[in-house]
């Protein structure tokens, strides 16, 4: 698979510039020392660009104040600092009032690589997903990041957008149509297993599906870029014909995409079997993205291996459920 | 004959007295509420709404109105009273305080009530919210000002100080923070728990024009608040010295009265002395 390479961050900036350039645009950006994440927007629209310093709580409060007087406000920071440092402001000031503020977390998944667990955002979706009203979007590649940014800037309400680093990323080799909030996209069709992925795990899942094909198993692969609200009708339709479901996310399996799918399938009692791939009750650690994906079996080979074991009836990983903190 | 300014002061003092009566009435009826933290800010809130702010209760969303954010959201009894007094809603709605499901007058203010600009209740949010509104005024070329009232204990939340730095960096002279310096917080005296002094020097060091006033002296409050900003290009911090529980002698300056209300028996006993209305009436006297 070869494709155009571009970073989700630069795609976001392109979309922001495009939307911000429309005459009478009400888009305002607020940074917490993270001005560079807005690229040329700050140079082109200095009067609409604010930087409050390394102060995520203030960034969110200021964004809420601007949204309360009618602005479309974009905020961005490292995903961990945005979501955890300012979680209470996000909850009280933004979510409860459904304010038109976009929360753009960067360096999600393994993108922060060598920075270690403080910067590796692998629990951020769980935090945001617990709050009512916030849409969560984790685009698969730069093209989708561009389209998703355009869509969330048009949408009036709070959104958490998951971006990665400045590194170029492979683009998906297939295009299943324009991005729409709340709609999953079927990228590949197969019979044996349903792979539901988000973010950069979509690309690895597609590659894994090709590896599986070589062993005689075919997979349906879904890009579930909107993690909240889930595309329930698509999921139910697919899961009712393919009762082996695997979720793949660069995130802990607690609270993110896997949990959302698990909740749905359990409540609907479809009789499907489910495997959630992601980190299992662990923090990230320092390493290159390749090393980390390999360690956590979230590269194509790791995903394919886990899926094969799952289809063969193994991979129960009961230790995950049994593992307890020391002394308990 | 009284001069206009004397009439204004008299009117504000009467509104502050009404805030106290309304707050006691609402909290006693509901059997809950932060009464003492509302009593300390009665003159501040009355002075803002009747003598300082440009606002129009008939048009709560008028874009050029001055904004008020009660960062110490637990003081909402005072806010509800002044909003009712100035005509944002019918006084009879004061009986909805903490008494009906999904009430627009809950224990901390929410925007579902006309006149409330921001949801508060979690401490340390107001200054950043106000900064966003103040930046928006500048961006839109509007002249409105934003008044944020914080508690003093509230200033122990670090978020206030990161916001204070950012506000000063942007030179927002359309933003005023008033600190209700009543020396008490939920758990005791501020200086024994999380020392704030030298408080005026802290604000000055953060780049704010700083004023210290008696928060119950309407003349002093008006002189200070009508004169903002004292320095162009600088935000203003007003430290208003107050007494928690002011006007209700048994609650004044008492730690335990942070979240305490009168019993109905106490209310009846104090009714004549404090000129309180009937608890069972449609609205406070």
From TrEMBL, chain A:
Similarity-based family: Belongs to the transketolase family.
Gene name in the database record: dxs_1
Keyword line: Thiamine pyrophosphate, Transferase
First-level EC class: transferase
GO terms, molecular function: 1-deoxy-D-xylulose-5-phosphate synthase activity
EC number: 2.2.1.7
InterPro entries recorded: PDH/Transketolase, THDP-binding, Transketo_C/PFOR_II, Transketolase-like_Pyr-bd, Transketolase_C
Residue span, Transketolase-like pyrimidine-binding domain: 6-171
Cofactor (UniProt): thiamine diphosphate
Signal peptide: none
Protein's recorded name: 1-deoxy-D-xylulose-5-phosphate synthase
Organism, scientific name: Neomoorella stamsii
Automatic annotation (TrEMBL), chain B:
Keyword Transferase set for record: yes
Enzyme class: transferase
Gene behind the chain: tkt
GO molecular function, one term: transketolase activity
Protein name: Transketolase
EC numbers: 2.2.1.1
UniProt domain Transketolase N-terminal: residue ranges: 14-274
InterPro entries attached to this UniProt entry: THDP-binding, Transketolase_N
Keyword terms of this UniProt record: Transferase
Domain of life of the native organism: Bacteria
Record keyword Transferase present: yes
Database matches in Pfam families: Transketolase_N
């Amino acid at each position: 698979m070869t494709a155009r390479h571009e970073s989700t961050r630069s795609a976001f900036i392109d979309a922001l510039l495009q939307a911000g350039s429309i005459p009478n645009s009400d888009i305002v950006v607020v940074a917490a020392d993270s001005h560079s994440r807005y690229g040329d927007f700050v140079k082109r629209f200095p009067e609409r660009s604010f930087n409050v310093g390394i102060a995520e709580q203030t960034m969110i409060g200021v964004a809420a104040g601007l949204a309360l007087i009618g602005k479309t406000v974009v905020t961005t920071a490292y995903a961990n600092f945005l979501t955890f440092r300012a979680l209470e402001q996000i909850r009280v000031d933004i979510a409860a009032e459904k304010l038109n503020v976009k929360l753009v977390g960067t360096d999600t998944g393994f993108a922060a690589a060598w920075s270690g667990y403080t910067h590796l955002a692998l629990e951020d979706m769980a935090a945001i997903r617990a709050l009512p009203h916030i849409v969560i979007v984790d685009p698969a590649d730069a093209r989708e990041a561009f389209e998703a940014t355009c869509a969330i800037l048009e949408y009036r309400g709070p959104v958490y957008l998951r971006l990665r680093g400045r590194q170029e990323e492979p683009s998906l080799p297939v295009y299943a149509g324009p991005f729409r909030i709340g709609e999953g996209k079927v990228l590949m069709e197969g019979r044996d297993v349903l792979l539901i992925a988000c973010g950069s795990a979509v690309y690895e899942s597609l590659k894994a599906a090709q590896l599986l094909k070589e062993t005689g198993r075919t997979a349906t692969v879904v890009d579930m870029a909107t993690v909240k609200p889930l595309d329930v009708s698509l999921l139910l339709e697919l899961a009712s014909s393919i009762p082996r479901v695997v979720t793949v996310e660069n995130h802990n399996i607690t609270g993110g995409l896997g949990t959302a799918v698990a909740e749905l399938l359990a409540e609907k009692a479809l009789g499907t079997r489910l495997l959630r791939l992601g980190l299992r009750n662990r923090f990230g650690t320092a390493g290159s993205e390749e090393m980390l994906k390999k360690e956590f079996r979230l590269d194509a080979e790791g995903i394919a291996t886990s899926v094969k074991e799952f289809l063969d009836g193994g991979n129960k990983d009961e230790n995950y459920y049994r593992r307890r903190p020391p002394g308990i | 004959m009284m001069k206009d300014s004397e009439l204004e002061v008299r009117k504000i003092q009467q509104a502050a007295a009404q805030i106290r009566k309304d707050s006691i009435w609402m909290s006693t009826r509901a059997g809950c509420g932060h009464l003492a933290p509302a009593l300390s800010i009665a003159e501040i809130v009355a002075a803002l709404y009747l003598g300082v702010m440009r606002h129009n209760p008939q048009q709560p969303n008028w874009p050029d109105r001055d904004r008020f954010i009660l960062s110490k959201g637990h003081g909402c009894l005072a806010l509800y009273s002044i909003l009712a007094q100035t005509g944002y809603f019918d006084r009879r709605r004061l009986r909805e305080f903490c008494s009906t499901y999904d009430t627009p007058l809950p224990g901390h203010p929410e925007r579902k009530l006309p006149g409330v600009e921001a949801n508060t209740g979690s401490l340390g949010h107001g200054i950043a919210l106000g900064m966003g509104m103040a930046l928006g005024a500048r961006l839109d070329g509007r002249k409105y000002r934003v008044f944020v009232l914080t508690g003093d204990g509230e200033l122990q939340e670090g978020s206030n100080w990161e916001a204070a730095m950012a506000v000063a960096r942007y030179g927002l002279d359309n933003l005023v923070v008033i600190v209700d310096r009543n020396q008490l917080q939920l758990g005791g005296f501020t200086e024994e728990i999380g020392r704030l002094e030298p408080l005026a020097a802290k604000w000055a060091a953060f780049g704010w024009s700083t004023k210290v006033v008696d928060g119950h002296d309407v003349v002093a409050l008006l002189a200070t608040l009508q004169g903002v900003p004292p320095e162009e290009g600088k935000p203003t911090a007003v430290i208003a010295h107050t007494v928690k529980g002011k006007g209700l002698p048994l609650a004044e300056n008492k730690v335990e009265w942070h979240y305490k209300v009168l019993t109905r028996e106490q209310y009846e006993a104090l009714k004549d002395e404090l000129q309180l209305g009937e608890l069972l009436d449609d609205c406070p006297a």
